[in-house]
Amino acid sequence: MSNKSASPGNAKISIDKMKKDWKLEKGTEERSFACQCPSPGHDQYQNIDFFPSSDPEAEMQAVQRERKCKRRYYPDTRHLTYEGARMTCRKQGLELVKIDSEAENDQAVRVMNIRQKGRFAPALFDGSNWFWIGASDVLLEGRFIWEDRTACNYTNWGKGQPDNAHPLRGGQNYVSVYRGTKMWDDAHSFKTRSFLCYDSSVSLEEELQYGCNEQEEFVTQKPPKMFGLGKTRFFKLKFA
Ligand SMILES: [Ca+2]
Ligand SMILES: [Ca+2]
Q1: Domains and CATH numbers, the chain
Q2: 153 Cα: distance to centroid of ligand 2 (angstroms)
Q3: N or C: which terminus of the chain has fewer CB atoms within 10 Å of its end residue's CB?
Q4: Structure confidence at residue 210 (pLDDT)
Q5: Which residues have CB less than 5 Å away from ligand 1 (the ion)?
Q6: 211 confidence band (pLDDT: 50, 70, 90)
């Protein structure tokens, strides 16, 4: 930018930082300089960032700010069926979240709690207390896989789950997570719940490193009681 040629002769333009005046120079003087680059995904002449070479700290902050925008998790508080949630994620180029570890399970619940401001609905089975993740056993009963068709190696089932309850109503094939305990349950396809999309191109480490959600505060509320969720109740019939 500062080495742009100017007529007459072969003079160069520099800017006085204090007066902000331009002046013509030979170009052999040593000066600090500023580069410019357009933000990715934008028109070349929009959202231009300047990185002054004389201030590496400011340059690093600009880069970190740019990366911070790459969020991994996209919580959605609307109540949709699993299929509705899956399609909503896909329309945004995202996928229902995949969870491979306890750390990822914790982060997923934390993100949903922040979006819901830690508030739990009075009813245990209200769709805002639960959220869909991208796992199901709809293709083969009892074998849970993620939307990318890989096996669910990490799971966090509640007690007695998955139970594929009410097989006469199609069984339960879609996984949702209770925000209060972080435990998983297989649920019916007609249930409506909030859901969590994610961008698989951004790593969890990157999400955590730049703390995309850490500035948002929320007050944790006590979740409704679980009523022994996960415990399968058996009623024994006695025949005389
Ligand atoms: Ca099932
Ligand atoms: Ca179940």
Answers
A1: 5-63 (no CATH), 73-209 (3.10.100.10)
A2: 19
A3: C
A4: 63
A5: 137, 164, 171, 173
A6: low
